[in-house]
Every structure is written in structure tokens, then in C-alpha cells.
Amino acid sequence: MSTETKCNPDLVRERAKCTFDVNELINLFYGSEKATKERRHFEDAVLAVKELKDAIPEEYLSHKERYENGVRKATILRDVYRDYKAKHNRDPPPNQITKAVIKDISPFLLHNGMFVPTIAGQGTPEQQAEWLPKAESMQIIGTYAQTELGHGSFIRGLETIATYDPKTEEFVLNNPTLTSFKWWPGGLGSTVNHCVVVAQLYINGKSHGIHPFIAQIRDLDTHKPLPGVKVGEIGPKMGFQTANNGFLGFDNFRIPRKNMLMKNAQVLKDGTFVKGINEKLTYGTMVMVRVGIVGDCSFYAALAATIAVRYSAVRHQSHIKASEPEAQILDYLTQQHKLFIAVASSHVYRNAYLWMEKMYTNVMKELSQDKQDNLPELHATACCLKAVCSRDAGSLVEECRLACGGHGYMASSNLPLTYGVTIAAVTYEGERTVLLLQTARYLMKAWMAALKGKVLSPSVSYLLNSLKESKKPWQNTPEGIVKGFQHVSFGKVKAAYETIQKYMKQGKDYEDAWNLASVQLVKASEAHSRAILCEVSWEAVCSSSASPNLSRVLQQLAQLYLTYWTLETSGDLLLYSNITKDDLIILRDKYEELLVAIRPNAVGLVDGFDLRDEILNSTLGSYDGRVYERLMEEALKSPLNQETVNSSFHKYLKPMMEKAKL
Ligand SMILES: CC(C)(COP(=O)(O)OP(=O)(O)OC[C@H]1O[C@@H](n2cnc3c(N)ncnc32)[C@H](O)[C@@H]1OP(=O)(O)O)[C@@H](O)C(=O)NCCC(=O)NCCSC(=O)/C=C/CC(=O)O
Ligand SMILES: Cc1cc2nc3c(=O)[nH]c(=O)nc-3n(C[C@H](O)[C@H](O)[C@H](O)COP(=O)(O)OP(=O)(O)OC[C@H]3O[C@@H](n4cnc5c(N)ncnc54)[C@H](O)[C@@H]3O)c2cc1C
Predict the structure, then answer these.
(1) Fewer Cβ within 10 Å of end Cβ, the chain: N or C?
(2) Which keywords accompany this UniProt record (predicted)?
(3) In CATH, what number does 109-276 get?
């Protein structure tokens, strides 16, 4: 990081005000002092590679150049990872340095994030032995090709067909319609030579549902599509420009029988289909990635908050009091209201991610012993937390962007790109509403079990408690607020269930009643997520090992999150809990007190995310606060500023002006 001496004086003053040890926060956030050291060491190693530095900002490159530059850097980055592993005999520590290098999304994202994990999670030991070493060493490059032009959410409706031919012991892949073409997979456009293809399995004319197959689609030497493969790139998007999303269709393309990933279901040589213990295990990679997305949301909220808080400390505009100099915009309570929730939410998502990761690891361990009891809870929880955190994180990033005024609209602030990337997670890996409805299915089942007095899984056990206990008077404490959110969830789950029952009594069948109640069902899932986020994050803060100085600030942040959402959803709380108008007024005042209490530590808190300038990649957010200098330096990089007079003057403007004289 830059030295204090070169810093903008406002930031120096802000840092001097901080009441806790920033290094302690960094170590707590990333797990330990050792983890911080290792992460920084790895980031240093990456940033020392000269070839990874861009000559001009990516925005000035064409679509094609941007992709090619992305691949170039992704391959260099991959070498750094390999060298680290060879030297240290372990993978590099978790880090976000790809953001400093690729800036947008790596064309290898799907290779590392879904191709390799699907082989590991869905392949037999023999299949793993065949493909994992090649994939991990990048002898082959892959993606996860599931979504099609016609179907993304409803994967049982996928149209890609894999027909087993017992004579040759091969599967024949076909995309019989335009809508059956794979559409979206990252890296598919021009990068990968292999993919996991999710296709409908047919044996002797009988359908056996969707399964994952490994297909080599390009020649390893020439990179040309193999005969029977039609593949290409889908074009520019709102973000993900360097992710190289592509399309793919097969025409009687044959792959050997061993290319069906058979850890779960199997096809024997003679065409006998052997069912797996649970067909939903085929969806396993998606569950893993949804858990990871909660962690990504923490990162994106931290990144946007760091940029916007530092900028707000440096930016002066207008007066709070006419007699005083222009105020730092961070001193306006409205600005604190916009920004501190992003800081607080990043911590909440981080704690929720760590909690989910534990649940995921436990369930995976249980599944390896053929125990599936906790899989539905994992699926339901990953669905709703992914859905709620990604939507909230997108809104927080956008709010941070807006909070930077006009400069937040500059690409060089990195907030527009960050918004494009963050908001994509609302859709990919399961569209928000669709995932919330998955959780609602689970909540309805849990509710029916609660009505029968059955024991419920831990994440929904509050439904049973709320059913048994009479509603207690509201308590304006963090624990009281957590209970309040559980009451809201309880109330919404109950109301959605009763709405379904009402429609069924009116003669509707269950599916129609479900559709008619689905707005309520989605709201019930959201409320359930909020209750989890509040409970998990408050418990994490209470049990943390932080020093008293840091603990005080972390508790303030957690309380800010709880109070913010109490005020945002006060209507729900008035409907479903014993909160009163007076309680809400007390909490409104408390919320304002929290903003004021957090204000002196705002810069220290974002320094505590330890995101270096290269990762922030922002004119507004750098550690030294040289905002105006950087804005000008970046503007001067525009190709339009490399010439005094642009040729369009002679071609168009001058003739127009001369015509106008006639
Ligand atoms: C919406 C889905 C889950 C519906 O699937 P479907 O087979 O139609 O299931 P049902 O709705 O009928 O539910 C049956 C039953 O199964 C349970 N279940 C569903 N999924 C899982 C699961 N993963 N694990 C465990 N159990 C599961 C469900 O709860 C039901 O249980 P009941 O007891 O109530 O009967 C499905 O179609 C789906 O997942 N859709 C989303 C598609 C998606 O996420 N695609 C991602 C593509 S890859 C991508 O986007 C990559 C992005 C880039 C990046 O990551 O960076
Ligand atoms: C940036 C990005 C990267 C991606 N990368 C990949 C990849 O690498 N590999 C891959 O396979 N896929 C990828 N995808 C595809 C992604 O997984 C799908 O777009 C996603 O699952 C949503 O599916 P859909 O597009 O079919 O949306 P749709 O399902 O068509 O959604 C459209 C609308 O219909 C509603 N809707 C749909 N079904 C229901 C229902 N049952 N009940 C109520 N409402 C419903 C939705 O709520 C939404 O409002 C990517 C997508 C994006 C944006």
C-alpha cells in the first residue's frame, strides 16, 4: 500500500481517528495473520509480473482485443498459480487478484469454477483419474454447458439429446432444434476444447432424464471445431465481456460411453440404465457454486464500499453550516445511510458464506457415506441466500455508484463494471425468483411438518418454536430483532401456506394454487433468508475473538444491518411481530446514532477489507485518495486525447459547418 505521506490529507485525518487496529480487522476478516500474510505475498507475486500490466485501459479495446488480452493474461496468471503450487506444494491462498489482472471475468472462470469441480464431484474414480490431471494442468480446457437458448431455469426441459448406441458403446449427441443450442457457457465461445454437456439421456427410445457428459469439441492442436460441432461466441453483454460466453450445437456427434459422468447414475455396456441414489445429485455443482456466490457478494460489496467511502472522505461539496468550510460528503448523514449498509452487508455475507461453507462440507461428507438427510436443507438454504445476497449486493453496488455522483458514472471509477458483474449473479447459477421458489417448497414442507409437531432441521426450527410459543413482547435488542425477523418469516410462511389451502378449497389443484400463491411464497423465502442472515451474522459477531475496541465496531456494524432491515421492512414487522410504532421510533433514532458512531471509523473499516489499489482499479477509491489527479490521468489515456485534431473534424464537422454557411 502507498505511504501515508503521499496521501490526501482528509484520508490521513480519517485514519488517525480510527478507534481500532485495522490490521486486527484484516486478520479477522481473512481468517488469521498467517492467511493475510500468505494472501498478500501471493498478490505481490502476481503484481510483480510486468506482462500482466495493461498498456491502456480495457475500455478502449475492441471486443475482440479485449478477449485476446483476457486470454493472454489468464494464461500468464495460470503460470503464476502453477509456480506457486510447485514451490509451496499447495494451492495459492484464497484471493481476488484476478480482479487486478483480468478486471472483468476470466475466460477460464468456468474451467476452474465448474468444469473441474463437476469432474471431481460427478465422475467415478476412474473418470477423475482420466480427466482431472489433464484439466488441472490445463492440458485440456473446459466449461459447463447446461443452459440452452430455450431453457435455463427448467433444466428438466433441456433439449440436447444423448442417445446411447450399444453397438458401438457410444452416446450420440444432437441438438435437434434452435432452442436446444447451448447458450451462455463461459469460455465456450473461443477458449475451451472440452465441456461438460448436460443432456437428456435416451436408451432404446426411453428417456432417463438429464445427465452430464464430457465432450471434446475442438481439436487440441488446431483448435478447430471437431466435425459435428457448431460453436461460437454470443456477443457483447452488460458485463462479463472477457468471459467468452458461447453457443454450441451437436450434429450426430459421438462420444464414448465412458464420457458420461457416472458417479451417480450409470449406463452399462449393454444399455442398462442404473439409477443413482438421488437424481438431484446431478445438480451438485450448482449447489457448490451458489454457496460461493454468497462469498462473492461479500467481496463486491466490500469493493464498492471501499471506493465510495474513500471518495466520500476526499470529496467536499456544499456546507453543513454556512460558517464552516465545505463539508466532506461523508459527513452528510444521507451519505452515511447510503454507504455504511454496504460495509455492514459485506461482513454479513462473509459470515453467512462461512456458515454455508460449513453446512456444505458437512453434507458432502454425509453424502460420501450415503446419508442424504441434510441435502434438502443445504439446497434450500443455498438457493435463498444466493438469491437474496446477490440482489442486495447488486443494489448496494449501484447505491455506492450513485453516491459518487457524476464521477461514479465514469468507467474509471470501476463502479459501472462492478455493478454489471455483481448483478449478473442474480440470474446465473439459478434465477432469483426460481431459486426462492425452490426454498419455498422446502418451507411449505417444513411448515406441514411443524403443524404435525415434528422435529425440524436447524435452519427452520424457529418455525416450530414460533408455532409453540405465544408471541412475546417485542424487545429492542439485536436478539429481539432476530426473533422479530423469525416471526416475520413464520407469519409469511403460514400466510402462503394458508393461501394455497384457500385456493385448493376453492377447487384449484395444488399446482395452480401454488402459482396463485407464488408472490407470497417468494416473499416468505426472502423473509426466511433475512432471518438467517440476521441470526448468523449476529451470532458470528458475538462469538468473535476480536479485541474490545474492534468488537465494539463490529457489533455496531451488525446492529446497523439489523436496524436497517427492521426499518426497511417495518410494515412486515408491524404485521407479523409485536413491534409497536414506539419501538420503530426508538429504532429509527438508534439507527441514526449508529451512523454517527460508525462515521469516525468509516475509512478504517474499508481499509480493513484490505483491497489493494490494483484490485479496486478505481480512480475514486485508491488508498492515497488522489482522486482528481487520477481522474485526469485516466482521461488523458483516451485515444481521442492522443491527437490534437481528430480526423472526423475534416471529414464531417468542417463540411457541415461550411454547408451551413451557404
Ligand atoms: C429450479 C430447479 C432446481 C428445478 O429442478 P427440477 O428438477 O425441476 O426440480 P423440482 O423443482 O421438480 O424439484 C424436485 C425436488 O428436487 C429438489 N432439488 C432441486 N434441486 C436440487 C439440488 N440441487 N439439490 C438437492 N435437491 C434439489 C427440490 O427441492 C425438490 O424437492 P422436493 O422434496 O420438494 O420434491 C432446477 O431446474 C435448477 O437448478 N435450475 C437453475 C439452473 C441453474 O442454476 N443453472 C446454472 C447454469 S451454470 C451457470 O449459470 C454458470 C454461471 C457462471 C458462473 O457461475 O460464474
Ligand atoms: C453472465 C451469465 C453467465 C452464465 N454462464 C453460464 C454458464 O457458464 N453455463 C451455463 O450453463 N449457463 C450459464 N448462464 C445461464 C444462466 O444459468 C441462466 O440464464 C439462468 O439459470 C436463468 O435461466 P434463463 O435465462 O432460462 O431465465 P428464465 O427462466 O427464462 O427467466 C426469465 C423469467 O422467467 C421467470 N421464471 C422462469 N421459470 C419460472 C418459474 N418456474 N416460476 C416463476 N417464474 C419463472 C424468471 O423468474 C424470470 O423472471 C449464464 C448466465 C449469465 C447471465
Answers:
(1) C
(2) FAD, Fatty acid metabolism, Flavoprotein, Lipid metabolism, Oxidoreductase, Peroxisome
(3) 2.40.110.10
Residues that are catalytic? 429
- As a whole number of angstroms, the distance between CA 228 and CA 116 comes to 24
To test the pocket of ligand 1, the residue of 280, 288, 373 to mutate (highest count of ligand atoms within 8 Å of its CB) is 280
Q: Phi and psi of 416, rounded to 5°?
A: -60, -45
- Kindly state if the Cβ of 515 falls inside 6 Å of ligand 2: no
Q: How far is CA 563 from CA 300, 341, 393, 594, in A?
A: 22, 10, 18, 9
Q: Whose CA is nearest to atom 29 of ligand 2?
A: 153
Q: Which of 146, 153, 155, 299 to mutate to test the pocket of ligand 1 (most atoms within 8 A of CB)?
A: 155
Q: Where are the domains of the chain?
A: 109-276, 467-607
Give me the residues of the chain with pLDDT under 70, please: 1-5
- Amino acid, res. 4: E
Distance between CA 77 and CA 49 in Å, rounded? 9
Q: Summarize pLDDT for 499-511 with one digit per residue, the tens.
A: 999 999 999 999 9
- Decide yes or no: CATH 1.20.140.10 for domain 467-607: yes
Instruction: Kindly report the number of other CB atoms within 10 A of residue 469's CB atom.
Output: 10
Q: Which ligand is nearest to the CA of 240?
A: 2
| Residue with the three cell numbers 468456468 | 110
Q: Among the bound ligands, name the one nearest to the CA of residue 152.
A: 2
Which residue's CA is the nearest one to ligand 2's atom 1? 424
373 C-beta neighbours (distance < 10 Å), count = 9
Taking the whole predicted model, whether its pTM rises above 0.80 is answered as yes
